[in-house]
Request: fold
Amino acid sequence: MRSQISLRDANPFGLASAAAVERMLADIRDLAPEITAQAAEFEDARRIPPELVETLRSIGVFRIFTPRSHGGLELELPKALDVITALSRIDGSVGWDAMIGGASGLFLPLLPGETYDRILRDGPDVICAGSIAPVGTAEPAPGGGWRVSGRWPFASGCQHADWILGFCVMIRDGRPIPGRGGEAGPPLIRGFVLPARDWRIEDTWHVAGLRGTGSHHVSLQDALVPEEQFFDFLDGRPCVPGPLYQAVRQLLPLLHGAFSVGMAEAALAELIALAGTGRQQLRAPVPMRDSEVFHSDLGRIAAEVGAARAYHRAQVESHWRHALAGTLKDDALHAEGTQAGIWIASTCVHAADTCFALAGGAALYDSSPLQRRLRDLHAAAQHAAVHQRFYVDAGRALLDRAKAV
Reply:
């Protein structure tokens, strides 16, 4: 019987006990056969089935970052990311939607306290989907609030979400309101939330990878959003205390890293399992498991995956130390975490590519998990949080540091 994680599993410092985390990971392992058996169905339906979402909700997956003050687990950062990695080892779409839904617990505390309390009044297992692309507009409405219109892409898990968030350029009198840098800088951007029932979900998720995530477009047309349902992503102060909530942006690449590592570890395990069946490639003199060439390739892939895992763990622990010290909200640290996230994502993509190639023609079939791992990892690496173009931030930070010496 699967355990129900409760507030009793948290310690006096607001962080869930190691025993609670181990119970959750055990429940996730128990789910593995059921999820694996349904993987093709997830892809065909282009979403995670509601029954599985409710199972994940019941074992606490969507409250890993929710504060203890509101009934959540408020896991230490390394432990929370262990949960995401464990689910990603089983299935990419499940791991991705769990990552997005779990991250709700980091975003929502940026709302005003009364709004946050209202959203969580029925319990801590609230799922929030959405998109951080600032592709909407918000204009002041007569009588208060803002009129919001827009169409947001990649709203993973929107079909099972309770709330959906979006980001807007704030406009007054037909012109963008100046942001941080005044008139010469970028416009003011704010995030906002509305109940999922108020959004239109457009059936657009026809893609090559992460097919089961239901990452459709969501849209609004002239929707009235109260002022108290907006938040400041970059400079807002969280309405709850705790090390997790001081700088959400700094944590996002590390969430992606947890996903990538789990997926790459699974691809490596699946290649080893294939070799263990005694498979022998066309024109190969011996089976894969007896080939020194294969042994060499396998050792190299294992080293790559191990390096990605170690780099991720080191960066997570560094970020967590900063979080505990109250120094997480730092642009240089964000560049450092993004650099790590990009390298980890690209290294894991390369590992999956190599596993796929070594498996030969057998990996082409829909029945092979390797082709799904390859597609899902490539899709995940396209995300802005870990895209190659943002190495520029790390390079700039290095030069700035050198100039300061």
Notes: The two ends are 59 Å apart (CA to CA). Residues 5-14 have pLDDT under 50 and may be disordered. The chain has twelve helices and eleven strands. The domain at 246-404 is CATH 1.20.140.10 (Butyryl-CoA Dehydrogenase, subunit A; domain 3).
